[in-house]
């Protein structure tokens, strides 16, 4: 594939069938986290030389019903509980439904409702410009020491230092966006062995809708995430 050829991207949006689904369905400053995630996925179509589609990965009737009136969104039947298996199954089902083969698979979890503009384009550029990369994920750089241990805690940074220089550590933001080449997902993995990082500001990881407190924080801080 050359840089001039359009690439095919499938954005998968998984929503689990549990009590947390209400956090992605209830409105945050007028728009639900699920709708925000769908809108972000749809905007990928605007990137030059990209043919993008959106696919919901859920067996929850309330979630499926919330997407019933959404145009051009695939809603195949979810039959796998395991997330990696569900992602693989949804990819293969979407390809069968559309009679096509995707190049890249994006996974966007709506429990992370806010994403920066330009994120999808940056991820695609990294994958297209480096054939050695299997996947690209979002991450936040840590500052200061990282402590850990079994019997007693110690700074892990110093254990891994080379020539007195401690290595960089990053917290993954897998829910914001994890992108992989098709063969990685088909092999049953979400992320491959060779991973590139898009390093983002802490605020994009801060809101993760897991409980009432995190939902209230999302409502209060929503204005700060306007791009």
Overview of the structural elements:
- This protein has 227 residues and is an alpha/beta fold.
- Helix content is 32%, strand content 22%.
- It contains 9 helices and 12 strands.
- The chain has helices spanning 21-25, 33-43, 61-66, 83-98, 119-129, 156-159, 182-186, 203-206, 212-221; strands at 7-14, 27-28, 31-32, 50-57, 73-74, 104-107, 135-141, 147-148, 154-155, 170-172, 178-181, 195-199.
- Strands 1, 4, 5, 6, 7, 10, 11 and 12 form an 8-stranded mixed beta sheet that branches. It has a two-stranded antiparallel sheet with strand order 2-3. It has a two-stranded antiparallel ribbon with strand order 8-9.
- Strand 2 and strand 3 (31-32) form a beta hairpin.
- The two termini are 33 Å apart.
- The relative contact order is 0.17.
- The model has no long low-confidence stretch (mean pLDDT 91).
Number of helices: 9
What helical percentage do the residues reach? 25-40%
**Proportion of residues in extended strands:** 15-25%
Task: Please give the number of β-strands.
Answer: 12
Mean pLDDT: 91
Strand and helix order = EHEEHEHEHEHEEEHEEHEHH
Task: Point out poorly predicted stretches.
Answer: none
Distance between the termini: 33 Å
Structural class: alpha/beta
The largest pleated sheet is described as: 8 strands, mixed
User: Any idea what the radius of gyration is?
Assistant: 18 Å
């Amino acid at each position: 594939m050359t840089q001039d050829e359009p690439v095919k991207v499938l954005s998968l949006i998984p929503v689990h069938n549990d009590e947390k689904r209400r956090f992605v369905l209830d409105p945050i400053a007028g728009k639900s986290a699920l709708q925000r995630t769908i809108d972000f996925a749809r905007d990928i179509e605007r990137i030059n030389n990209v043919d993008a589609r959106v696919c919901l990965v859920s067996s929850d009737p309330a979630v499926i019903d919330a997407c019933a009136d959404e145009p051009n969104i695939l809603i195949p039947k979810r039959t796998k509980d395991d997330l990696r298996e569900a992602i693989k199954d949804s990819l293969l089902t979407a390809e069968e439904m559309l009679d096509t083969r995707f190049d890249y698979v994006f996974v966007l979890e709506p429990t992370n409702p806010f994403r920066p503009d330009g994120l999808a384009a940056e991820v695609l550029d990294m994958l297209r410009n480096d054939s050695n990369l299997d996947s690209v994920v979002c991450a936040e750089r840590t500052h200061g020491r990282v402590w850990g241990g079994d019997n007693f805690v110690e700074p892990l940074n110093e254990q891994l230092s080379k020539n007195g220089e401690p290595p960089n550590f990053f917290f993954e933001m897998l829910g914001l966006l994890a992108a992989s080449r098709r063969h990685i997902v088909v092999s049953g993995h979400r992320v491959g062995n060779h991973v590139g990082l898009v390093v983002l500001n802490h605020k994009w990881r801060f809101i993760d809708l897991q409980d009432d407190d995190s939902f209230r924080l999302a409502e209060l801080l929503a204005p700060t995430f306007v791009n």
